[in-house]
Amino acid sequence: MNENMKDRLQSILDEAMQSIQQSDALDKLNDVRVSFLGKKGKLTSVLKGMKDVAAEERPIVGQMVNDARQTIEQHLEETKKRLEKAIRERQMEEETIDVTLPARRASVGHRHPNTIALEEMERIFIGMGYEVVEGPEIEYDLYNFEKLNIPANHPAKDEQDTFYINKDIVLRTQTSPVQARVMEQGKLPIRMISPGRVFRSDEVDATHSPSFHQIEGLVVDKNITFADLKGTLEQFAKELFGPETKTKFRPHHFPFTEPSAEVDVSCFKCGGKGCRFCKGSGWIEILGCGMVHPHVFEMCGIDPEVYTGFAFGVGLERIALLKYEIDDMRLLYENDDRFLKQF
Ligand code: DAH
Question: Ligand 1, atom 2: nearest CA belongs to which residue?
Fold first, then answer.
């Protein structure tokens, strides 16, 4: 009986050892534990057979069962630790962070071609002592038209059809109303530029948009002449397009300046010989300008007998398109990263 029991225990022990050895995962190891040490486990069933063992042998058999249990438990524990360690190591390996790798770059974008062109123009005029002033995009008809010498039935109002909030308030069609606002404040002399968004009810195409930008300029002082206007804009063109740039003043009409002119610059691509860029003419139109109309002075409370002045208006998009040789204005508004990245 004793021998028999011993053999049986030994075979259970062998079997348990083998099962433990073959366990390659924690859940399998737990299954082994249950199948040998659990309530219905193989070793437990031996204890249940104790009633058949002779009384004097029971302590011995009991001791043997306990020894076997201890051995199995010890091996289970060791194997569990080994498996857990392996899991941890694998995890560490899989989750390693290479702190020496360069960080992923945050994409912060950069300045829009309009902004680059605007800042360049602001730099030029600030260098000549101008102030940068802003005016409202939603403007009174009074400032946008009336005080600029464009009365109710003037044809210029047709060319600058816009979006009306009501009959007195419009989305401004030009930055020129800022001239009237600044003059009305009565602080003289004036030397300012005013960049900003303007609106017209134009269809979108390669050269038109219902919303675009202008930069207005205004100088008012005693003894300001057309020569000052010419010198200023010549200097501006040279700084913007290069020192070789020539300027040409063509007579034109604007209701709020007299005399008025449009300014062309010599083509900076061909130097004035004529190319595709300047459509063969050698010249590129860049802005409108003139001497402030005496009637505008009067409407804004400035005495035209004492003060004179000049004004100009530049299309910002036009300058950005020219400077960066962009052939379609729509590209400036589409926010396509592939386009914007190039500047
Ligand atoms: N406001 C004019 C326009 O949008 C441009 C302009 C022309 C502005 C002559 C001026 C100027 O200040 O003197 O067409």
Answer: 313
Q: What is residue 71's DSSP assignment?
A: H
Place of tokens 């010599």: 266
Model confidence, pTM: 0.72
Please write the tens of the pLDDT for every residue from 23-35. Answer: 999 999 999 999 9
* Residues 225, 221: Cα–Cα separation, whole Å: 10
Span from the CA of 213 to the centroid of ligand 1 (angstroms): 12
Q: How many residues does the chain have?
A: 343
* Cβ atoms of residues 306 and 288 within 8 Å: no
Amino acid at 220: V
Cβ(137)–Cβ(196) below 8 Å? yes
How far is Cα 287 from Cα 263, in angstroms, rounded to an integer? 5
Which residue, judged by its Cα, is nearest atom 8 of ligand 1?
313
Contact 315, 211 (CB under 8 A): no
**Tokens encoding 211:** 């919303």
Ligand 1 pocket check for 257: Cβ under 6 Å: yes
Identify the DSSP state of 102. Answer: P
**In which band, very low, low, confident or very high, does the pLDDT at 107 lie, cut at 50, 70 and 90?**
confident
